Amino acid sequence: MPFFEKRNNTWYARISWYDVRGARHNKSKQGFPTKRLAQVWATEMDMAKNHNAISYRDPLFSEYFKEWAETYKIPKTSANTHNRYRHIYGKIVEYFGNAKIGKVTRRQYQQFINAYGANHSRSTMQKVHGTIRSCITDAMSEGIINKNFTDMINLVWNEANTRTIEYLNVSEIRELVTKLETDIKPTYVSRYLIIAAIYTGMRFGELLALTWSDIDFTKHTIKISKSYDYAGHQTKEPKTKSSNRVIRVSENMLVVLNALRDNHTTRVFAKKDDDYITSTAVNKTLRKYVHKKGYHFHSLRHSHVALLLYKGVPLYAISKRLGHSDMSITARKYAYLIDELKQQSDDKIEAILSSI
Q1: CA distance 12 to 4
Q2: Least C-beta-crowded within 10 Å: which of 38, 186, 267, 288?
Q3: Would you say the pTM of this structure is higher than 0.70?
Q4: What distances in angstroms separate CA 326 from CA 181, 197, 244, 296, one per listed residue?
Q5: How confident is the model at residue 176 (pLDDT cuts 50, 70, 90)?
Q6: pLDDT tens across 139-166, in order?
Q7: Beta bridge partner(s), residue 211
Q8: Phi and psi of 76, rounded to 5°?
Q9: Which residues, in sequence order, are CB contacts of 25 under 8 Å at separation 6+?
Q10: How many beta carbons lie within 10 A of that of residue 3, not counting itself?
Q11: Bridge partners (DSSP) listed for residue 169
């Protein structure tokens, strides 16, 4: 039964319940101008309790995030991702201090996004907000809070800090491949790795972990089932479950890669001493052949997507090839490419209609 009491001209309300272990818990609130409002609150809390939407726990926002990340996220992610969760935890501590998670409002969270976004790129803000939103959604599921303060947030970012992704057009890709293949030797492993990235769109870690047994030279396929984590110095499962995939490749690429067998290594892109190539070394090689500002190894993946889109490959097939769990991820990530192709298509449509 709820308890009500008048204190200094306002009303106090308290509800009690027992958890699964038989321990008694209370939740109370005071300052209601009338007993009727106190009763309404008590009724709402009683219903929320029965639907597991109320909790006796009221942790700090920062501590709940830390516990959530360490329990559900960090154990199955790469060292780089670990660092991202720790960084976000630090920012929550810095901005929200000792604020209880149940006391944080949507307005306060929007102010945090405004402040942090003023000096960070769009992709950074998408990751930060997406991570915190996932945490708060879980907090609601656990009954820690009954409102999601990350709902209907306007994402803010600094356009000057948002790097424009450079990619190569079809003629530039052909030119780059020709340059890379000219006088190529098995000792030039970085060149081979760049060629493979152009032809496959594979991530850097996926290419580093690739072994000869993953390549079927008869069926012209590559099985992607692992990735090398440079920060953690270990080979692990790919980024997501959907990253486990088999992709078709061209015979031309396989003929070029086959020369690397002369290095007598288990991994395809290993140096002769079986050591791993660094991204710094690969980007240094790439800059010798591509002189676009901001172009780096991951840009090769964007160039691969641009090529396939230009040639009319359906977005669904591209999404599966890239290892995305959902086609909407591909559409969102490469929206700028899709928009450019739409403009080209619109120009063609207008030209066709004008010729009638």
Answers
A1: 6
A2: 288
A3: no
A4: 35, 22, 14, 25
A5: very high
A6: 988 888 888 999 999 999 998 766 666 7
A7: 267
A8: -115, 20
A9: 16, 17, 18, 19, 56
A10: 13
A11: none
